[in-house]
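Sequence only, no structure available. Ideas?
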Amino acid sequence: MIDWFTDHLALIMFGAMFIVIFCGYPVAFVMGGMGLVFAVIGWWLDVFPIIGMSNIPMGPYQGLRPKEPTSVPPSIPAIAKAEERQRLRDFVEQYDLIKQNQFNLVDAAQVDRGFFFWRGYLQEAKDLYRKNPEVLQTQTGTGGQRLAALFDTYIAAEEMPRDKQVDYLKRKFAEDGELLDFSATLPTHMLIDLFADTPSPGDASSAQAVTRLFTGKLIRYTQETEAILAIARKDPDAGSKALQDYFAGMSDETLGGDMGLVFDLMRGADVALTKKITNKMSDHAVLRLVYRNAGVARNDNVTPERLAAALHIQPDTPTQELVDGIRVVMSVTSGNFEIDAPTTDIFYKVIAEVGEKDPMRGLTVLEKGGMPLLPFVRKHPKLADRMFAAAPERFAGLVASAGKDDYGNTPWRIIHGMIAVKPELAASVVGVLDRQGKTDIATESVIVFAFDAERTATIPGIPLSLANDGHFLDGLALARGEEWLTRTMARAVGKYSDDVQDGAIDPAFIQEYRRTLRAALDRTQGEARERLERVFREAFAEAGEHW
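Reply:
I predicted one. Tokens follow.
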């Protein structure tokens, strides 16, 4: 039953969406809600990796250049400007509703948004006003002009020296109490200067109360962290113990929510000392930080080396314990590829040290630890060769199972990456997979690099190799035979030609594939060139395409 549900998950989601829409709920709410529900179901069934866009490494594409000069249509900036102006008009109406509800910051889903929501909401409105002041200043009625005056006060304060800002705002607050509702837009240090000695009035509006409450917390954390750092300056070990006890006194919910604020205050006072005493804490304390808020803990607070040590991720650790430690870290990622990369680099280094002594054991850790295969091959291509030689079926199985634990990769994308660093290994893996009956992977693997010529010409430094594309195909021709390669390439060309005709893919796909193959031929010599040119001509002819 579970297998059937998994196979038909998309259809079930489609049907469920229409049923709920016909119940009368708003379309936007239904589509977002159903998408979230079925994403969680898909994750539970292990068919959908929950991953943020921030995990996708965009570094290789930073040098992307357009093929020809482009310009934004004149209508686009005008539309964006109109949208900004409308959002500012909407803010006037929304603010009136918020005032009518006595600044209750609970949203339609009954979630108390609190200080950070209110701060972000007001800062966005202030930024829009800064760009479009005339919208509020000339709006009919007093609402827009009143909000314009409030924003003008805060904008004027921003242009003053810090010491004068405090006196100016205190004087303005005394003249106009409504200004206090907008105090959330102020920087954190300014809130402390303004409200450190001012008790929160019992009849304050919710917006003012939320700001005062946050400021009180900020002042308390500042005093407590300064005391910890004072101890650490005299004795780092004692300071580390004090910090550990401090975090131990927080509930899991408080630690997860306020850890970032605590570290911001400590790092603002002394970055090096904060890192030193944090990483001196016990294994249990360090891991609790990671479990409660991996994004904050792993963002240059808990070092990768300390995290690895806390989980005993060392070459001499027993295999199962090593695997368990790696899987723990892989399950509590920060959600940011750049933040997590230093930690995974250390894990790959440990696996490599294990593999150098025992390739089979290294392959076991790589396989069961859930680490993506391709980065390991890129960092340790010779060791990957040894692992494949030790257990070809198991190594190829890691490629075939890509997508389950490999951040949305596909087997042929891994083969593509392997071609750039170790084309002979890529050809051997495809040969094993084909013998296992996985012809779909073999078919995709001989065409996955179709745009390599275009990409290498457009993106300087991209890790692709046209020469290696040729080495890979020649390796397949030698290992599996020219007839097999001709048949497989013909099948791939035919499949993608149909997709082009159906309008499903780039109409230049086959043309770019032909261009890449010719570029690969230009980088191949002797018998290999003759062999590949013969295969390419026959494959295109068999697929009904000209070479």
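The chain has 30 helices and no strands.
Hope that gets you unstuck.
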